[in-house]
Amino acid sequence: MTKRLVLVPLALALVSAVSLFAQTDPGPRTDSTDSGDPLPSVAANVPTTILDFFNDGKARFEEIDSVTGSIPGEAGFGLGPRFNSRGCARCHSMPATGGSSPGPTGGPDLSVSENPQIEDASAHGATNTLPSFITSDGPVREARFIFFLTAGVPDSSKPDGGVHDLFTIAGRTDAPSGCTGSVLSQPDFATAVSQNNIIFRIPTPVFGAGLIENIDETTLLTNRAAQTGNPYGISGTFNRNGNDGTISRFGWKAQNKSLEIFAGEAYNVEMGVSNELFTQERPNPDEEQASGLPSACKVNPTPEDHTNFNTTAIGTVSDSVQFAMFMRLLAPPTPSSTIPGGFTSIRNGAGVFQSIGCAVCHTVQLTTTASRITSSLDNATASLFSDLELHHMGTGLADNVSQGTAGGDQFRTAPLWGLGQRVFFLHDGRTSDLMSAIAAHSSSGSEASATVANFNALSSTTQQNVLNFLRSL
Amino acid sequence: MGRNGSLLLLAFLYTFLFGATSALAQRAGSKALPRGVILVKGATPSASDATTPVPEATAITAGRIESRYFGIAYRIPAGWTEQVKGPPPSDSGNYVLALLVPSDTMSKSVRGSILIQAQDLFFTAAPAANALQLVSYVRDHLPPGQQVLRAPAEVKLGDRTFARLDYAAPDIGLHWHIAATDIRCHTVQFIFSGPDPEILDGMIANLSSLDLPGGGRAPLCVAGYAAPENVIERVDPVFPTHRFNPVPTRIIIDRQGRVKHVHVISAFPEQSAAVVAALMKWRFKPYRRNGKPVEIETGILFGSGNGR
């Protein structure tokens, strides 16, 4: 036998051994059945009629909006003039209504079989060009430009940071005839991409959002104080509501104070529906600095979503309020104790997660305060795996968008409950692989670099336990 | 056109097209924003002058991490390297001075990290006034399952007193050995982690020669000296926008009671400018030690105080 023939099997054996022991992301868990369920006390209808509010809110969350409400089968009203998608649940859908971006095969509660923004772009005759960063197997995305342009070039003295909606209603059968593509054009995404002047965000899952909303400020401040001096170099801060100075907590940069603000803003920004919280139709940021939206495309009286005076009971409440109520009453998914990897691996991984510093930011549990809404929100344990603080995430993750007091590289610690069933990770959905997501936490300027160094110091088996634990959530 | 003419034309077209493409690429490139750079910053540190040492300014020189502010020079162990820089100081006064990891050329058996961080004791959220108290606080807040192998206690390494804490995560075989020392009302922590406690012990022992050769004298640090009874003239900073973030600030007061240096630890640019402009107009009663006026540094918290 020649030397080459000996070496080939040896190399194959080594590759096999590496494959055998290398840690891998087990991928999204499919065994869970309770994602999208209401909180237990809501399911028990305590207090009476609360379950009706949950179900009504969910139904509205799943509606598809048209411009004038004239399209059969699409119950919603007020779409556009600019929008990113046509319904809340088209984006918040994985693994169930209220989740994050659907995966390559769509979300389980949707009829679509690909990224729903592809259908949104051309639905009912819309003449939008699909941006290059929206793909059939990629995440649902919104786009923000980093700087405004001066003479066609990004101007670092003019921070933008605002959402530039992907689509317009131009060409749709329910849009005014005068609202054409030449009157209301899409942003120049191709140039923004070529100039690196664009960043992306994917939908944050909203499971357990009512528990997050009901965590008292003192609990958060006490938790922060307990982190002082931690041996991982971590020291976060809070984003604060500009009106009252209290801690804000929703959104990728914790820029929104409450679920109603969160819902009202999303309804306005993502779907173009004016409402009682955000009362005008929203232009893109550069239009806002000029003369606003063209009048030919402003179809409906405002606010398009509002309290309904001619109905009774639940029907009185606006969509925005009911979206918020649905999110507030939505339970967090139940983690698995055995899948993936088995009980022992998950338990060990949970311990390691704390030992190496992950849990300093991804705080395992916080307790809610007393609630007047329902007992499941009342002094409850929220296993959210977040401190709701802003942390510097370094050059690798920086999106160069400032929101509130959050700078261009600061993000709210993402809650990890439900992570086991998510397809896309990080604020822009850049990866579906947990190992890549963990590695991305380390770069110059990041508070997480020492913790990632600790993770890298673990054996492959122990790293696999951490991955199994994360996918059990 | 003959063969030579055709080749010449091809060469001309190639040069023209390639050159044009290259020029276009260069123009497009010049308009493109750089990747991997933080262009839009949040709260950052700043100072009233560029020459007075500040805590966040560390430099790697001749295999050592040097801090002129703290007057220390830590010799980097052979084979270890700084791959990434730390975050900016936090609004509670925490600094990551350096993070070292085994270099790619090191044996895979060498694992772990060396983290050097400092906590400004004027602004810490922990009930700690010195290194021993801070390390004890860390011990009290260790994650579940950690085993304390050496309770917080003071040890002498060279001329310097350290508070030392050793603990381990037995399930994963990782150890943490912490040595913390007080410098200028900061606790500077050296945190060594890895699987081999003997190697970590050796790293702790190497802290015996930490002082920066030729390091200058530091002003005396005095907590709370900006209290009303010590201030003769005070001008409040006017923030053009109210952001609800805390603005921790250190000042050096000279022997005449004038503000000699302002270090804004964490603030937005317009806040820093307002704080520096105001503080430079403050006058203090000179701080006296043994009857003689001495230069001191102290801390003041502006902005929203409830952020910590």
SSE order and pairing:
The complex is a heterodimer of chains A (473) and B (308).
Chain A: H1 3-21, H2 40-43, H3 50-62, E1 65-66, E2 76-77, E3 82-83, H4 88-91, H5 116-122, E4 142-145, E5 147-150, E6 153-159, E7 167-168, H6 189-194, E8 198-201, H7 209-213, H8 217-226, H9 259-271, H10 285-289, H11 319-328, H12 343-355, H13 358-361, E9 366-367, E10 381-382, E11 390-392, H14 394-397, E12 410-412, H15 434-439, H16 449-456, H17 460-472
Parallel strand pairs in A: 1-2
Antiparallel strand pairs in A: 3-7, 4-8, 5-6, 9-10, 11-12
Chain B: H1 3-31, E1 44-47, E2 58-61, E3 64-67, E4 72-75, E5 80-81, E6 94-102, E7 113-120, H2 131-140, E8 147-157, E9 160-169, E10 174-183, E11 186-194, H3 197-205, E12 220-221, E13 231-233, E14 246-253, E15 259-267, H4 269-279, E16 283-284, E17 287-289, E18 292-294, E19 296-303
Parallel strand pairs in B: 12-19
Antiparallel strand pairs in B: 1-15, 2-3, 3-4, 5-6, 6-7, 7-11, 8-9, 9-10, 10-11, 13-16, 14-15, 14-19, 17-18
Give an overview in words:
- The complex is a heterodimer of chains A (473) and B (308).
- By secondary structure, chain A is of the alpha+beta class.
- Chain A has 17 helices and twelve strands.
- In chain A, strand 5 and strand 6 form a beta hairpin.
- Chain B is of the alpha+beta class.
- Helix content of chain B is 19%, strand content 37%.
- Chain B has helices at residues 3-31, 131-140, 197-205, 269-279; strands at residues 44-47, 58-61, 64-67, 72-75, 80-81, 94-102, 113-120, 147-157, 160-169, 174-183, 186-194, 220-221, 231-233, 246-253, 259-267, 283-284, 287-289, 292-294, 296-303.
- In chain B, the strands form five sheets. In chain B, strands 5-6-7-11-10-9-8 form a seven-stranded antiparallel β-sheet. A five-stranded mixed β-sheet of chain B has the order 1-15-14-19-12, covered by helices on one side. Chain B has a three-stranded antiparallel β-sheet with strand order 2-3-4, with no helix packed on it.
- The longest helix of chain B is centred in the N-terminal third of the chain and has 29 residues, at 3-31.
- The N and C termini of chain B lie far apart (81 Å).
- At the A-B interface, strand 6, helix 8, helix 12, helix 14 and helix 16 of A face strand 6, strand 7, helix 2, strand 10 and strand 11 of B.
